[in-house]
Amino acid sequence: MPSQKMIRTAEPPRSEMRQFSELMVRMIEQFSQRFKNQVFGELNKTTIEKFSDAQTGNFATIFLNLTKKVIRKLLHQYSDDRIEEMVKEVTGRIDRHNQKVLYDKIEQRIGISTKELIAKEGLKSTINAFRIETEQWVKKLRDETLESFVANSLRVMSMGGTLDDVMKDFNGLVDKRQDNARMMARTQVTTFNSLLTKVRAQKLGIEKAIWASSEDERVRPSHAARDGKEFELSKGLYSSLDGKTLLPGTDYQCRCDYILIIPED
């Protein structure tokens, strides 16, 4: 059996992970500020203390008219074109980071020129596919956030809540949306980085790797069970603990990594 060389894969760029998360959180924060200033701020809370049944229709109509104006402005500010440009910039930096770190390691370990590897890789279609998938995720986050702001506020109004009740519910929803956006943005970055490594390794004829967990108390049991186990890059690694076949770094909030196995020949 030939001897094997091993290379630790390129970790996801923390700066890009942090920046992308901040961009998503900031988008939701700007949405919430517009709603607070231009929707709730316009409702006459000095004369109406409660959205009672008799008043619900009137205030719901006023509320919806105000939200339509605000949403039009926000959809212009965060248009599809702007989101696509933003995602293109972020994914481009992740790709360049992965390419440099991984190929530098391969060059040092095996001796293949980094320039030669870059010239032959041909990953444009793979990168474009993930970029488009990420664009769709950001657009969905934008649309669902705006929809939830309207629907949740109307629900509290219909239940006879005060304007303070509406605002309290709204603030809680904003916090939840931001937390979810922050975590999902990080997962998008780690997934892209992991898939880039996989495809680049496969193009070099590397077929197997070893799962490497973060080895701390935060590692979920199903991922800890995979630690140190060999798997095929084309298939991923299965665990009966979660019933999933995964590639490290692609599961929700996964911090695991993998070590590429390179046969001597």
Summarize the entry for a quick read.
This protein has 265 residues and is α+β, with helices and mostly antiparallel strands.
Describe this structure in words.
- This protein has two domains: 13-205, Four Helix Bundle (Hemerythrin (Met), subunit A) (Up-down Bundle), CATH 1.20.120; 207-265, no CATH class.
- Helices cover 63% and strands 10% of the residues.
- The chain has helices at 14-38, 53-77, 80-110, 114-120, 124-158, 163-203, 221-224; strands at residues 4-8, 208-212, 230-232, 237-239, 244-246, 257-263.
- The strands form two sheets. Strands 1-6-2-3 form a four-stranded antiparallel sheet, covered by helices on one side. A two-stranded antiparallel ribbon has the order 4-5.
- It is elongated.
Radius of gyration: 24 Å
- Cα shape: elongated
* Secondary-structure class: alpha+beta
What would the CATH topology of the largest domain be?
Four Helix Bundle (Hemerythrin (Met), subunit A)
How would you spell out the order of helices and strands? Answer: EHHHHHHEHEEEE
The description of the largest β-sheet is: 4 strands, antiparallel
Identify the CATH class of the largest domain: Mainly Alpha
How many DSSP-defined strands?
Answer: 6
The helix fraction, in percent, is 55-70%
Question: How is the largest sheet built, in terms of strand order?
Answer: 1-6-2-3
Architecture per CATH nomenclature, i.e. the level-2 architecture of the largest domain:
Up-down Bundle
Taking the alpha carbons of the first and last residues, their distance comes to 11 Å
Count of discrete domains: 2
Taken as a percent bin, the fraction of beta residues is 5-15%
Oligomerization status of the protein chains: single chain
Mean pLDDT score: 87
Task: List the total number of helices.
Answer: 7
Low-confidence stretches at least 5 residues in length (pLDDT < 50)? 52-56
